[in-house]
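Q: Entry one of two.
A:
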Amino acid sequence: MPSSPERRIADRVKQFLDDEKTSPELVREYLNLLLAEQRSIVGQLNKALGFMFLLAALFVLIDVQGVQEVSVGGVKLGNLHFLTALIPVVMVGLFARAAILNVQRSVVNKTYFSLNEHAFPGLYRSDLDTLLVPNLFFVTSEPDAIARSGRMKKVLEAAWITEILVFIALPLAFYVYAYVRIFALLHVTSPLAWISLVLTVALYVLALVVFYEGVED
């Protein structure tokens, strides 16, 4: 028997539906729980990605506009150059969290569709169940969540691949820019700058591995 995650999910769904204690009401309740979990994960994902953009904007503000201090709750924070070394680390931490959440979202989505396919085949074949699945702020967060066949799916798959590349490339481009500026601001011998760089590279590679595994699954 294949050992792929899809196969395991399908097996567990079948086992759930074959159980004599599994009623139609229980199936519907579980489907509602899966949808609620998807909404929760998508909400967390959008927040993480939104904070990444805000932090990138703050970095540019400090660097390009030469902001020297900010006031938070009446307390002034000066000498913000040290923050430039912290911002990429926080950003890549959010990026890694987004990658982990995306894997969780993929598993929940596949479970939802697999359960629909077996319990409500008419609903599944009509693609009407895809209308209930929450999406990220990306144009096409997952092709199967919009269409499963036809020309539209091919278009969506092409757009989806493009968005994945952008999702990976944009943070990388920012990190390159950020560390050129960080070493210019803090000097190349700054321990803080080097610690920041090592942590960012390590977490970025971890995020890519997690994200790749999620796409492969």
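Q: Entry two of two.
A:
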Amino acid sequence: MLVSGRLPCGEQIEASKIHSRLGAMNKSLILSVLLGVLGMSAFSPVQANTFTHQMSAGNSCNGNYLDISAKQQPVRLSALGLHLSPGSHRLKVYTKDGSYRGAELDAGLWQMHGEYQVESKGYGKLTRVALRELNIDPLETKGIMIVSTHTLFYSNADQVESYRENADLSVYAADAVCGEAFNDILHERVWNGALFYNEAEFCFPVATENALIPLCL
């Protein structure tokens, strides 16, 4: 037993030692206990992941549409990897609830998620674009539209698959933006890029009253 901040033998407990011992403990266990105290339930940790769709290029214009669907666990999207032409790009990212299909040119169904300035890493390389965090609930689909001021590379649908999936999510991305957002659509153009998701050291899907949400440290 500890009394007045001293060990039984009388040794003073230093703050640095306490911090060191706490830091060595398993963070996931600490989080599970904390959630229990708060009356929340936690499931198995969600691992940090990268999902790459395509990088084969073959065609290009200003942007792409994609549908991201979470499977049994929530997905916390933190960044996009894009296949951009060299130089500086001004990007706009729009989102909508549900699939983009059928809503490509209807501005009233979309929300501006953010505007981003990036310097491209060039052809054949992913340029990472950190996003304002986007959460996708289990079994939910989010439509995404990415539009650049310059060239974004994609592939023709007769050369690559427009649908890919892993254990956490699926992506359908078969249409492109040419020009300004909501101005024109090109079908059979498959997005090149990657998704960076659940990137915090520990992410737990937490059951709230209405939904599962990712809680990350």
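A: Comment on entry two: The first helix runs from residue 15 to 24. Residues 1-25, 41-47 have pLDDT under 50 and may be disordered.
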